[in-house]
Design a protein that fits this description.
Blueprint: H1 2-9, H2 13-22, H3 24-45, E1 50-58, H4 61-68, H5 71-77, H6 81-88, H7 91-103, H8 110-114, E2 117-122, E3 131-138, H9 141-199, H10 201-246, E4 250-258, E5 261-263, E6 272-279, H11 282-357, H12 361-368, E7 369-373, H13 386-420
Antiparallel strand pairs: 1-3, 1-7, 2-3, 4-5, 4-6
Helix pairs in contact: 3-13, 4-5, 5-9, 7-9, 9-10, 9-11, 9-12, 10-11
Length: about 425
């Protein structure tokens, strides 16, 4: 019993083939009707379609990024070939293409034109191919060629308008910046001139430093001379003081009295002798010399102190002058650097503006995008593909007729059971 149920559940291919054989005329008739209908539509209903292609060459991004000088222009003209292909199908380009066609008395809209054209990159883009193909389809060969040419011309016109707008904006921006830089340059020149006229620059400070340096050297030389002289005076004073110390102020003298006469040279025998002290005649001279030496030494010390004070004051003034010289040098250097930077930027902007003045939008576009294969007049229509349409209709007819046959078999096989019930 289990084996019988298993066989009953299996697909009976023989039964299916018998069903298809019994419905063979349905399959044949449906397939023939489908193929006949496709043939009638393809040969007598559908209009012929002609295709014409235009090929553009575009520069790769790395080839134009550094030459255009504007990120917007470089981003569009220097974009990838795929970006160019997408841009060709944009509304802005198709709007310009309709204007070109309108000049040829061909009325259409950008929406209708979008269904008539396609753009694709030709070749292996991994190898850096730079070709973009624009394909146009129309009912007539002339129309297809006109549409392809119009789209290519509209794309070049779109790029030219973009470049022209951007170049005008760049010229205006650079002109305004050049005017600002010119004012900055004038201000920097006046500021440097005013600084030089007010302070005399570093020259006057250097001259004052030189004069005070000479004066300081003179003071130091004078102090050195005074120090040597003071040392000699001090040494002489030391000798005098030593000599004074060893010289007695008074000397003992023996005297004899005779007839109220004092005889000191020779003492007579039996004369009265008196011993007294008298002022040493050499002592006052030594005292006077010591006093003079001390006065001279005090004078030298005072002069040396005054010289040291003058040296200290001059040193402080020199330090202040050197600091002022450094500050003046830094300020002057900053002013000159500002002036040089402003001049450099002014020259750079003037050079850019001069280069833009001689740049022509169409030449800029042609340097990056160029038509290498203009559209040609198609000889034979590219569609409709009649045999392919008939073949597809035949396959669809077979599929539909087989489905119909199985539906009919199912309907007839289940109808009696429904009646009996």
């Amino acid at each position: 019993m289990e084996q019988h149920v298993e066989y009953a559940d299996e697909i009976d291919l023989r039964e299916y083939i018998e069903v298809l054989w019994r419905g063979k005329w349905v399959i044949i008739l449906v397939t023939l009707c489908a193929m006949l209908s496709a043939a009638v539509v393809s040969f007598f209903v559908l209009d012929p379609v002609y295709e014409s292609s235009t090929v553009l060459t575009v520069s790769l991004p790395e080839q134009v990024q550094g030459d255009l000088g504007d990120p917007v222009i470089a981003g569009v003209i220097g974009g990838t070939p795929q970006a160019h292909a997408r841009l060709i199908e944009s509304s802005a380009v198709l709007q310009r293409a309709t204007g070109v066609l309108a000049a040829q008395n061909v009325r259409t809209s950008p929406r209708a034109l979008r269904g008539m054209i396609s753009a694709k990159v030709v070749g292996d883009t991994a190898k850096g191919d730079k070709l973009v193909e624009i394909t146009a389809r129309d009912k007539t060969p002339e129309g297809a060629k006109a549409v392809a040419d119009a789209v290519a011309s509209g794309y070049l016109a779109f790029l030219s308008d973009l470049v022209s707008t951007r170049l005008s904006s760049l010229r205006e921006t650079l002109g305004a910046e050049l005017a600002r830089r010119s004012a900055d340059l004038e201000d920097a020149t006046k500021e440097l001139s005013a600084f030089m006229a007010k302070s005399g620059g570093q020259r006057l400070i250097e001259q004052e430093i030189d004069a005070k340096t000479v004066l300081l050297a003179n003071y130091k030389g004078e102090n050195a001379r005074l120090k040597v002289e003071a040392k000699a005076v001090a040494e002489s004073l030391r000798v005098l003081e030593s000599h004074l110390k060893s010289t007695p102020e008074k000397l003992p003298v023996k005297k004899s009295f005779s007839d109220d006469l004092i005889v000191t040279s020779k003492l007579e025998p039996g004369a009265a002798i008196l011993t007294t002290e008298e002022l040493n005649p050499a002592y006052p001279g030594l005292v006077t010399q010591v006093a003079l030496k001390k006065a001279t030494l005090a004078e030298l010390d005072a002069r040396m102190k005054a010289g040291n004070d003058a040296i200290a004051a001059l040193s402080a003034e020199l330090e202040a002058l050197e600091a002022a010289l450094v500050e003046s040098a830094i300020q002057e250097q900053n002013l000159r650097e500002r002036l040089e930077a402003t001049q450099s930027r002014y020259i750079e902007i003037a050079t850019q503006l001069q280069s833009l003045a001689g740049r022509e939008p169409h030449a800029t576009v042609r340097s990056a995008v160029e038509i290498v294969a203009p559209a040609s007049l198609p000889v034979e229509p590219s569609g409709p593909r009649k045999l392919l349409n008939i073949a597809i209709a035949g396959v669809l007819g077979v599929m539909v007729s087989v489905f119909v046959v199985f539906i009919m078999h199912y309907w007839h096989s289940t109808q009696p059971a429904t009646v009996a019930r």
